[in-house]
Input
Amino acid sequence: MASAERQSGMDRTEATTEKRDKGIEPGADAAAGLTTGAAKSKLLELLDSDSTRVLVPAHFDGRSRSLWTIAGTALAVAALLLVNGGYVVGRTHEPRQTRGIGSIAEAVLLLSSMAVTWWVVARESRLETRELEMRVRAVSQEIRGWTGIYADLRTPQLPTVTTYTVLRDGVWRDVPTLLVVEGDTVALAYGEEAPCLVALRTDRSGAGSADAAGVLERGQRLTPDAMRTWKPPGRAWDPRTVGHAALAGRVLFRAKDTPLRSHLEQIARHHQRTGRSVLQNQMRVVIRLCALRVMPALFACALVANAVIYGVVSAAQEANYRMGVEVVIGKTVYVVFPFACTVLWPVLWIVARIFTNACEVVLFDTLQRSKTDYEDTDNIDEFDVEALPPTKDVTVGIGAIFDRMRWLWWNCDFRTLSRSSNLSETLGNVTVICSVDKEGTIAEPFCSPEQIVVPNGTDYAILDVGEQNQAEPGAGAGVVIVDEGWEQFLPSLRPLGLACCLNTAAHGSGGAGWGAPTHRRHGHMRRHAKIQAAQDTCLCAIGRAVGFATDDVARYTKVKEVSVVAPFHAATDALAANGEHSLAASLTATVLQPADGGGSPGRLQMLTDGCVDLVLGVCPDYFDGVGIRPLDDHTAAMYYSLYLNALQQDLQCLAFAYRPLAVDPGAVVRAGWTGWAKSDGVEESRARFVDMRLSSTALDTMLDEYGSSRNSSNSGTSVVSTTAPVDAGSVKKLGSDQKIDSGQTPGPDHAEVLADRPDDRNSSRRSSSEDAASHSSSLDDLPTHVTEAARKAQMQARTKDAPPRSADDAGVDYTQALVHCLGDSEDEVLRDAMSEQIFVGLATFAYAPKTDVCDFIEDLDVAGIRFVHFSRGGGRQSKAFAERLGLETDWNTCILLSSDTDGARSSGGGGYIEDHDIKARLPRGIESIRPHLADVDDIPLQISLFAECTAASTREMVRIFQENGDVVCCIGSALADSNTLTFAAADLAVGVEPIPHFNRAGAGAGVVELAATANDGSISTSGALVTQYALGAALTCLPCPLFLQHDTSLYMLMQVVSEARRLVGCVQQAAILLAGACVAIGVVNLVSALCLLPPAMPGYMVLWALWVVAPLLGAALLFAPHDENTMSTMPLKNHAHVADLPRFAVYAAVRLAPPVAVTVLVYVTALSRLAAGGGASSGLGHLSSAVGRADWTALTPSSQWAVVGAQTYALVAFVFHCVCVSATLMFRTRTTLDFVPLRNVVWVVASAVCLLLTLALAALLLVFGDALVASVPWYTYVLAFAGPLVLLPLQDLCKLHDKRRWTRLQKLAKLEFKTKLGLHSPL
Output
């Protein structure tokens, strides 16, 4: 009780603290949003309803044709046995014939096994069908036990994390899409897609009625164009009146539906069972072969032979005419009796599948818990492209496997969906691994700096940024500028580095967080808008790379943080033209005060970073490291061209600006502004939201008023500048009177830090003169709002009580006080200040692949598994990221899945570009893929990159892969609800945790680290510790058997696939052993019938061999050791199964000939002596004549026991040879000289058990019988136990021949896999 009270008190404290952190007073607006309890009730009502039941058809149920074939055979054989047994028992008196009772008992066993098999299959089918439904119920239980803990998102806003800002319990929370419910108040930012049908709320509290006109459908973006059509009566759109005060810039909506409802309905509608695995299809071929060819052939031969024998031999003797039923039916049925015994093999198959699945699940869990790194073994050459992938040396206990196996046998596996996904079989035959996401799945969730661009006179310098070399002594984590001689650009780098340190710091005055790994920015912009990840990432690492230290950061105090969002600005239109339809132009400005500046006017400084379109549009000047120069059209176009090129290279780009602020403190006090004085103290009072507007129409009006001779155009129209590039005479030298010295130099302490760095003038900087071909400063690409005329027109329009500026105006006087009179509002002053800044440079950022991802992709190629990336971006952006992954990016290596009719896509694509992509008959659009495969070539199946993809096109491409025989494993974000149907379409799906700390909850400075739980994407171990992210991932990953934590290496998939390949190969070999034993026994009994002898192996001995011995030996094969070549073998595609059937038939005949021959010879030699009563043995002709002509219904007990004794010897010989054959089935192509079977300890034990039990059974039969064991000739024993001398060489010869063919096929498969005909060709 005390613990619960403490937990409740902690939750209340966290909620109160978080409300204050998010600008909401405790208890405020509690009635405006739902409580967590109310939201849970709605989710549970939906999850517990019958309408959400998701039933998946089972792979192996009562309607299976293979099962009906086996059952029909068993039923027919059982009927014949009953007829034969009843006839024998009813027709004989003395001496009594035990064969009749045996036939009846064998028929009863067959019928009983049919009942057992039917029960097991029906039960297994029911468990498989309900797996997904039970997973939904398990997630429902987790939601029911959820205590309402909300974790903070500690990464930037990612496309792979679809969360929404929702008002819960009076606090704005980050809530995954599938946890949003009807009635929730959702704050949408410009560019965000609606999670469901939502209606606009026009009041600030959220308690008013919804505007019927302001409705967004599910997936529809909130765009300025959509908002303009709503036209609120009597006023223009004001972000502060349509959103919450703490979330100005966002628009409040009321959810009119629950997204989870349609989510579950789509799963129920589209989710189908996974196709049959390669192994299952191979078994179907074998079953059909045996049922439709081998068994009918044996049955026909036996029937004809026995009919002839009865008609010619027995019927000719009038006394033996009553033998017809036993000769024609009895002897014939025992030839096909082994095939009827396979009725129990579906149960064995299910047991084997459960065992292999248990092995995979236990290994997966063990690897995920292990925190050791994947490392190559000592004998692996890291430069060997054919080297095996690294593995973890973990120990999986057999006890854990059997515990999991026992649980899987009795329970519905809702955790890993091992039945419905064919887990082990699918993993063992994966041929394609598809990545449907980038950020957080195969790439880091934080973007890392790539390059820094700073002005250098009239030119610019591009400096590369790289990771700190950890191998260097004393080196720590972080980034460094890798270009030699970069120190010569320190004057230009210092303002940008200072902006990175102070404007994005996730720490206070250099405290906590400084020097830590990549972390999120502690700012307010994310509350107001959807921003690019670079704007939400702390960039203090760049500041450290420039040379700033903790003391330098501590010298500054934040006065005000200004968040600027401009959805109605021309810069937003420019972003849309460049493919960023989901973002509104935005920037963040921080007003800082140096520690030694006191409160005197002019000592404040404003540092700005944000979208390039917006920042360049508010900068009339730029700083080149020496002085301030005018930012003319030529210079602006030069930097804008760099920005456009960065976008084409899949880079994010931020622009940085600076300006000193001359603020009159008296005017500030009189105006009543909060947060400008240290006494204000409250962090929220220092945050300010400003809406900046400049529509294309307004810009044209300004240009007309300014007197420009330009044509009216929109933001994307090119404008030719009439201003020539600046010369040296236009540079304004910096002096103390211009108040920018504090921005260009951090201070004396920083100067000492930088003095120790070498100054290499022979640096490797790259400038515009060297990169003119790649970085063209074409004025045609410059948007109107960035032109010099537009900037001056805006300045003129904002100037108050001052004469209009002319085109020849010298520029901005940055020493002029901003506050002229009490009439100026704080927003107006800040807007004016931010509209006249000094540009200081650019920085580009990229998503780096996760650790081991590139090596993982390279090793997949060795394993014959194709890695395919589905990208939402355009062709060039996708190729740029693919190149970082190590994928091929040459000609014809990228296909666009958007159709020509889609128009301009949100990814910024525009189709194939002739001079770049060299279009060579590539299909365009998902609807063109199948015709292209049918009529042109198979390039779509060979490439590794698809661009301009949607969830629907990705899902359809997965189906196309499957139609062409590929087994597809799909990996994607567990928090992107659009991935669910793609997961359901794939053969196997793996959800990846895109962000760290799923179970990490925090409120303000107090962070609660929750206990580690089993985040398997389906259900965790303790509902009290689950966060909203874990629940959202569970609902998104409903079709996913596997779930990877954020810090788990993808190499774990490689190791699991390797183990699955071993297990699948072992199951194949075990199936060969069982099928071979079945056919061999049938042939043995057929030969016996042709020799006019009783069956060499009666029914109960066949049952012993096929229900006890062969399964035990087959189970032992599952423990065969790992083959070192497993992960360098090309997997089989899921089509053309057992194509080379005649060759395998020859192998089977050769390999089964010795056991069949030895068993028959042992039976004949033993029977010849035993039938003679221990006397001299007779030949086969005499024996056949004597036994064949005898009246079987009147055999004496001694004659009956003589037959039983000979059959017992035949059984021992057959079992011994089965053990020898199983020793050669450890591997398909490795001979007994390459691998000693004794290394498989489990097989040694199983073989010993089989032999001992068989000998015990033989002893029991011989002891209680009247057979004279001593009369059996010595050569019978020689034949029985010396057979391996012939058997093993024949087995190895077949394996050697098979190895040559297999090696040739492997080489052809690798050649086809790696030699991509049609790719890399411009024709």
